[in-house]
Amino acid sequence: MKKKILTLIASLATVLAATVASSACIWSAYQPEEPKCLREE
């Protein structure tokens, strides 16, 4: 029973982390610097 609860918590934490990361990129809160080799100059 304890293993099922821990698995559920880990799954929820993973989904929450993925949601926060993707929403941060969508709302421009996190904009990584573009590498020089990918820039169009």
Strand content of the residues, in percent? under 5%
The overall pLDDT, averaged over residues, is 84
Radius of gyration, whole Å: 17 Å
Listing every helix as H and every strand as E from the N terminus to the C terminus, the arrangement reads H
Number of H/I helices = 1
Identify the overall geometry: elongated
The largest pleated sheet is described as: none
**Which bin fits the share of residues in helices?**
55-70%
Low-confidence stretches: none
In short, what is this structure?
The chain is an all-alpha fold and 41 residues long. It is built from 1 helix and no strands.
How would you portray this structure in words?
The chain has 41 residues and is mainly α. The chain is 61% helix and 0% strand. It has one helix at 2-26.
Topology, element by element:
Layout: H1 2-26
What are the salient characteristics of this protein?
41 residues, mainly alpha, 1 helix, 61% helix, elongated
